[in-house]
UniProtKB/TrEMBL annotation:
Residues covered by the Dimethylamine monooxygenase subunit DmmA-like C-terminal domain: 142-185
Ranges for domain Dimethylamine monooxygenase subunit DmmA-like N-terminal: 9-131
Domain of life: Bacteria
Iron-sulfur found in the keyword field: yes
A GO term, aspect molecular function: 2 iron, 2 sulfur cluster binding
Keyword terms: 2Fe-2S, Flavoprotein, Iron, Iron-sulfur, Metal-binding, Oxidoreductase
One Pfam family in the UniProt entry: DmmA-like_C
Protein name listed in UniProt: Uncharacterized protein
Keyword Mitochondrion attached: no
Organism name: Thalassospira povalilytica
Amino acid sequence: MSESLIEESILSRPKYGQLAIAPGLAHYFVADASGAECVIRVAQTAPKGFMEKVHILYVPTPGENALITALYALGAKRFEHVPTIDAAIAKLGDWLSGSKMGSQLYLAGTEGLIGRAVAKGEECGLDHTAVQCEHRGSLARRVQCVHCKTMIEKVTTQPVKCPSCDLLLLVRDHYSRRLAAFQGVCINAEDPTEEVEIREVFK
């Protein structure tokens, strides 16, 4: 999987590291296809008995089976794969609602998955010191249109057209941790007839 190239000059953006085992009574892993190998790496270096306390939630690429098989073979206490990030976040909320103090949350994959899972962990009362994040894969952004509040997933272009209000949005570098999204502001508000080149920049 590709290594993260997150722009460090964006001060509002979370800092990502590399997943490593931390002391805990339970260990919750959430990953998409980009982050699956991070989970496998941690599991392969884990001490005896660690996997008996591990819960893995995985969002595969449609039609992909090899990584599902590899993750299942790790022997976690609980392993589930779901079709979408929305489903993963909902399931994570269910899991964490029954978790005990001393639980650890490990997130690996694209920024859209990580940001939303961090927010869900905080919502469920998980302390930020118990959350680790490793970014892998696409640099595509999750963007909120500030005009109609629509969330636009997997944005790779600058600017991007809002699918709800049809405005052409400048994708700002400011990242909202509360929303787990970047902000999109109308780029041609003063002259809607102005033509702006759309380029793929977040790959």
